[in-house]
Specification:
This protein has helices at residues 18-29, 33-44, 80-103, 128-136, 154-168, 192-200, 254-272, 290-300, 308-317, 324-338, and strands spanning 2-10, 14-17, 50-53, 114-119, 143-148, 174-181, 203-212, 220-229, 237-242, 245-250, 282-285, 346-353, 357-365. With 366 residues, the chain is α+β, with helices and mostly antiparallel strands. The longest helix has 24 residues, at 80-103.
């Protein structure tokens, strides 16, 4: 088995109030006062107060924009090439800062044996993994792999890979780093998918240090993984490349799918681990949106207080795709480290993404 020793989270420098992003979105999507009122209602009931971005534009005046055109129409609108240039300039830097925070006082960069990079918002070859290796001075012989384009559940997939690697190497020091710059991909076309993406998504990074369970350091031991795909939701959540950037499809049917299927998934995962709901002390649920969390409550009977860390992350950061569930897990790990009554602590984690794919894990603290 493997153990999570440390989790660190990081965000870019620009912090935007949700109301400020509304003002930006309003200029793009609203063609009338009625449109504006509807959009404002969505923003004010999103459960989000603030989001972070590598772009200053969402809170700046038109003449101060750095990414979007200074014209009222925002034309020419950024193409894929420009979006990937900004990703290349920002992603590795944020990743390195977060990794250094994760390993501080635990291991030196030279002791990292495996590197797993995760992203669905930027790709190139050579890519972010080599930039991180070069900046940190990692061995050119290091084991490295990348998880790309899996979306919001990708962090759990990376945990599964790291768990398998730890099982085969008692001396492994594995770093997972999930880095997403979602705000580079906001689109101008007036559609419910584009409006939803602009409403929810943000930029962020999370790094995890994992070791074999024989490690002496205290941490979160990963016990079990379980995944399922609801193919009926295949067209309701997707992420496609285009010349204009990456295009998100996120229909209003997704919360209904989660509400319909999540309790069954939860019970299957718990049965697979020989546990039940009463065995779980902490719930690490990806806050894909306020409606997603409410659908999970309705499906499972969980109380809002049991998902408080998820609601907190949504409110403070928005949906950052793959790092988001690790932001929730970091809050749980911090509470467990600071707590005294941890003997029977058990964490159930779940995240959702294109497919519609649902990935879960169960962990204990020791």
């Amino acid at each position: 088995m493997s153990k999570i020793i440390s989790i660190a989270t990081g965000v870019p420098q620009y912090k935007h109030q949700q109301d400020a992003i509304f003002e930006f979105a309003d200029t793009i999507y609203s063609e009338s006062e009625t449109d504006s009122r509807k959009l404002k209602f969505l923003y004010r009931h999103s459960g989000i107060d603030t989001r972070f971005s590598v772009l200053p534009d969402y809170s700046s005046n038109a003449e101060d924009r750095q990414f979007y055109s200074k014209s009222k129409s925002l034309e020419p609108f950024p193409d894929l090439e420009k979006r990937m240039q900004w990703f290349a300039c920002n992603a590795a830097k944020l990743s390195v800062e977060t990794i250094l925070d994760c390993i501080a006082d635990k291991i030196e960069p030279a002791e990292i044996t495996h590197l797993i990079t995760v992203s669905c918002t930027g790709m190139s070859a050579p890519g972010m993994d080599l930039d991180i290796m070069e900046t940190l001075g990692l061995s050119p012989n290091i084991f490295r792999t990348s998880v790309n384009f899996m979306g919001c559940y990708a962090a759990i997939h990376a945990l599964k890979i790291a768990d398998a690697l730890c099982n085969g190497d008692e001396k492994a020091n594995i770093i997972i780093v999930c880095t997403e710059l979602c705000t580079l991909h906001f689109q101008k076309e007036n559609s419910i998918d584009n409006i939803t993406s602009t409403l929810l998504f943000a930029d962020g990074c999370a790094a995890v240090l994992m070791q074999n369970n024989t490690a002496s350091a205290r941490g979160m031991t990963l016990k079990n993984f379980f995944s399922d795909v609801a193919f009926k939701g295949k067209k309701d959540m997707s992420w496609q490349l285009s010349s204009r950037g990456f295009l998100m499809t996120l229909t209003g049917y997704v919360p209904d799918l989660v509400k319909e299927d999540f309790d069954s998934l939860l019970n299957k995962a718990l049965l697979n681990a020989g546990m039940d709901k009463g065995s779980i002390s902490h719930w690490c649920i990806h806050p894909g949106g306020k409606k997603i969390l409410e659908a999970i409550q309705q499906s499972t009977g969980l109380k809002a207080a049991q998902l408080q860390f998820s609601y907190d992350v949504l409110r403070e950061y928005g949906n950052m795709s793959s790092p988001t569930v690790l932001f929730v897990l970091e809050k749980i790990l911090r509470e467990l480290k600071e707590g005294t009554d941890i003997k029977d602590a058990a964490v159930f984690g779940a995240a959702f993404g294109p497919g519609l794919t649902m990935e879960t894990f169960i962990a204990t603290y020791d």
